[in-house]
Amino acid sequence: MKQDVIVRAWEQFVAGQGIPAAVRPPIAASWRRCRSRGLSPHERPAVEKLAGQELEEHCRQARPIARIGRPFMEKISRYTVPNSLVFLADAGGYLVMVVGDPNAFAAQAPFFQVGTYWGEEAQGTNAIALVMREQQSFQVEGAEHYLQLHHSLACSAAPIFSPEGEFLAVLGVITPLPAAHPHTLGMVVAAAAAVENQLGLERASDQLYSVVQSISDGLIAIDENGLITQMNTVAGNIFGLSPADCIGKPVEEVFRDSFSLLRVIKTGREGFNDRELAVDINGRRVRITVTSRPICSQQGKTFGVVLTCREMKSVQRLVNRMVGAQARFTFDDLIGEDPEFTEAIAMARRVARTDSTVLLVGESGTGKEMFAQAIHNASPRRNGPFVAINCAALPRELVESELFGYEEGAFTGAKRGGRPGKFELASGGTLFLDEIGDIPLETQVSLLRVLQERQVTRIGGQAAIPVEIRVIAATNRDLGRLVEEGHFRLDLYYRLNVINLTIPPLRERGEDVLLLARYFLRRLAEQLGRREIVMAPEVERLFLQYHWPGNVRELQNVLEQAVHLLDNDILLPEHLPAEFRAASAGGGEVALPAKAGSLADLEQAAVLEALRSARGNISLAARWLGVGRTTLYRKIRLYRIDLEELRHSAP
User: 235 — phi, psi (to 5°)?
Assistant: First the structure.
């Protein structure tokens, strides 16, 4: 539209007449708002300008857009007419960056300084104010400005939006009116769109960075030229590297000491899963599992590779958590008041604070693993894994692979990538070797070496893997006798038997059998939703007389069977399993020989008969003889009575 038409329209409006239809509606609406605000079209307005900390804060908030926008603004400045200004205003209408010389516009120079406010209520109708209000691009020329001061200007401006659509800023160009050109607005709109695209790319880059950093695995991305393009903090921690220092560098330079990793990178373009590697870097060896995936375009062209890696100890923690390799029992779960039993607990509490190897000796079912778990949970290793392995349950040919692990291809059927053994899985925690007396003699040499050197070599491997563990072993056999018979190595016996804890069998714990029975009955009642279950006196007598070859495990089994036969809340003898009643029948009287050579012979015969009738139950035999357990033990040593042989020969 020709300027003379706009000038006449402006003159008519300021003279109090209506606005001709030739004036664009947004311009006309702005003129009306300016008049309603009391702005004088002929007077020079005051310069509203930020200063000090307030200006610094506005510029700081606009800095990301200014950083992206400056190259575009400088390019626009080169292609526009002389004496032009390219500006960036924030969403509040304050200029935060100006490219060009404001003094080229002598009359308006103070209004083009950084920090100046260009809102409609301050500067009347102008392109910045219209973009802020309408949030679309505008070109305002000459007399379209409400204030006569700005009639010599032409301004083209466009909004800048965030990737989420939030209005952020105004990008524009101010030229002298004679140099105004419609193409200027197109150039400004294109530049604003370019800034928005760059903001979107940076937002996508930030999101990618956040995703990469949030991954719990280490991640390294390498382009087709072998340069590292991404490395997250986890990968940096695994390898002891600074990701910022590695990005942009050749992978061969960063990992120059690790031939195995470089080989995997070069050969892993097709991808693979969970390959175990030992990586040498910065003078230390790190064992990791690596997964490789090619980076491909939508057309299928490969232009890099991404590696995800986990340190083996984190993999082991995950495995232990998934397979339940955690200790549940504490010393509070060990129930009993027998002096020997409580002394064993007290000793276990003391040794829990150390890292010494413990050998638990006791019959099957006495609670050796409970002791082992309690020791672990009271030790500094309580937050580490507790890995248990029953040496007697493993086939001879699998013992070493289970304990020490194996490498890929170590034998027929070996898992691809190999497999860590129990020593590796227990690193940082406790390894419980149950039934250690049954471990094959040929495996004992390797076990001794691991215990001495605290490092393990997998079957089929050559690298020694450090393991930081505490070993607790347990047996129900006489290891000393096995050593004498040549079935157990003497040096391994000494290595294991640093601290010896003997757990007494249930038959020697006196009233503990009733304490345990009441505990199990309470727990069974809770599980079955029943009221408290009590034992009849006859049941208590049977429990005290019985020799409990299966110890606590057998007691728990007997009670669990009996509870399901209850009609009420009283446990009677008829509820007990038939085989238990048959085994516990009889006893209570000691038959003495008709003739005896001396009082000592008579005493020895009485002790033997009592022990035989009680099936080796010390507490029961002592009660029948009317002596204390300590006295009975003294007589057993005096007469050299073999309790184990007696128990096995008892009917």
Answer: -60, -40
Max Cα–Cα distance, the chain, nearest Å: 149
Cα dihedral across residues 176, 179, 185, 188: positive or negative: negative
Residue 39 near residue 147, CB atoms below 8 Å: yes
Domain 216-312 CATH superfamily: PAS domain (3.30.450.20)
Q: Is the pLDDT of residue 529 over 50?
A: yes
Please state the pTM of the whole predicted model. 0.57
Residue 465 sits at φ, ψ, to 5 deg, of -105, 120
What kind of fold does domain 323-501 have according to CATH? Rossmann fold (3.40.50)
C-beta separation of 446 from 392 below 8 A: no
- Could you give phi then psi for residue 273, rounded to 5 degrees? -120, 135
Structure-token pair, residue 160 = 């800048």
Per CATH, domain 3-206 is 3.40.50.1000: no
Give the bridge partners for 204, in sequence order.
Answer: none
CA distances, 223 to each of 3, 262, 275, 304, 378 (Å): 58, 14, 21, 4, 50
What b/e readout covers 341-374, taking b as 16+ CB neighbours within 10 angstroms?
Answer: beebbebbeebbeeeebbbbbbbebbbbbbbbbb
What phi, psi does 507 have (nearest 5°)?
-65, -20
CATH class of 599-649: mainly alpha
Strands 464-466 and 419-420: unpaired
Run of H or E including 219: strand 218-223
How far out from the chain centre does Cα 7 lie? 72
Question: What confidence tens digit (pLDDT) does each residue in 232-271 have?
Answer: 999 998 888 899 999 999 988 888 877 667 777 766 566 7
Beta bridge partners of 643: none
- Say which amino acid occupies 628: G
- Mean pLDDT of the 122-138 span: 95
Contact 325, 428 (CB under 8 A): no
Enumerate the CATH 1.10.10 domain ranges in the chain, comma separated. 599-649
Q: Does 281 have pLDDT greater than 90?
A: no
Note the pLDDT tens digit of each residue in 550-597.
899 999 999 999 998 888 889 999 998 887 887 776 544 444 554 555
Which one-letter DSSP state was computed for residue 636? Answer: H
Please check whether residue 618 is in contact with residue 508, taking contact to mean a CB–CB distance below 8 angstroms.
yes
Cβ neighbour number for residue 133 with a 10 Å cutoff: 16
Domain with CATH 3.30.450.20 in the chain: 216-312
Q: CA triplet 564, 570, 572: central angle to 5 degrees?
A: 80
Domain(s) labelled CATH 1.10.8.60 in the chain stretch across: 506-584
- Paired tokens of 16: 């109090």
**Is it the case that residue 10 has pLDDT exceeding 90?**
yes
Q: What's the CATH architecture for 506-584?
A: Orthogonal Bundle (1.10)
Rounded Cα distance, 302 and 616, in Å: 76
pLDDT-wise least confident of 164-178, 207-221, 322-336: 322-336
Query: From CA 84, how far away is CA 78, in angstroms rounded?
Result: 10
Quote the CA–CA distance of 249 and 235 in Å, as a whole number.
15
